[in-house]
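REQUEST ID: PR-0412
SUBMITTED BY: lab tech R.K.
PRIORITY: routine
TASK: structure prediction, single protein chain
INPUT:
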Amino acid sequence: MTDTVTPSRRMKRPAILSVTVTPTLNGDVCDLQDKFRNAIWQFDKILLTTQKVLRAAEVLQIPVYATTQSAAKLGRTVAELEPLLKSAVCIEDKTRFSMWTPEVQRHFSVEQQQDTGKSDVVLVGIESHICITQTTLDLLAEGHRVYVLADGVSSCNPQEVPVALDRLRAAGAVVTTSESWLYECMGDAAIPEFRDIAKVVKETGPDTKAALGGLLSRM
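STATUS: complete
OUTPUT:
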């Protein structure tokens, strides 16, 4: 059988990861702040998945965008993520719920200026039914493809999570897991980055199992 899907998901050049014919892949980290640490269901599991995704982003040179929600009141991004966000395109403080703020859009446009197509965007963070939902809907409205990682998003109320993911899936987002997404990004074990990504997957295996066991228990 001829493979009509996988070839278009292979990396076209080392600097930019292409997962469809032309677009750039981008990673968005939504509002993972200290004040939410004790309020969000399975917050520690969200951090594990986010760390994994950010490590992979470094290997695959995926642009990363991060936001905080009213940082003056709710605190900075948690310390565990700060070393992995040093190369982020931007870390934007916001009051609106969607990450798709004018400032993020501006940085996004600069990153996109070498491309002719839309982007694939992967989302991790909080809250699944508010900020993640509104960000996803805004990105879909702009024609981007959005991946929401089921082992990387949560809410204060765990019952909100499956409802939100069902809505986003119906709206056109791809709801998947971090490991599935990573291998879809690569598409081929022959790419130079495969060994480094496989190492990340192996080293984070127990964390991934814990995140899936905790977060998917309500789905």
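NOTES: Residues 1-24 have pLDDT under 50 and may be disordered.
REVIEWED BY: pending
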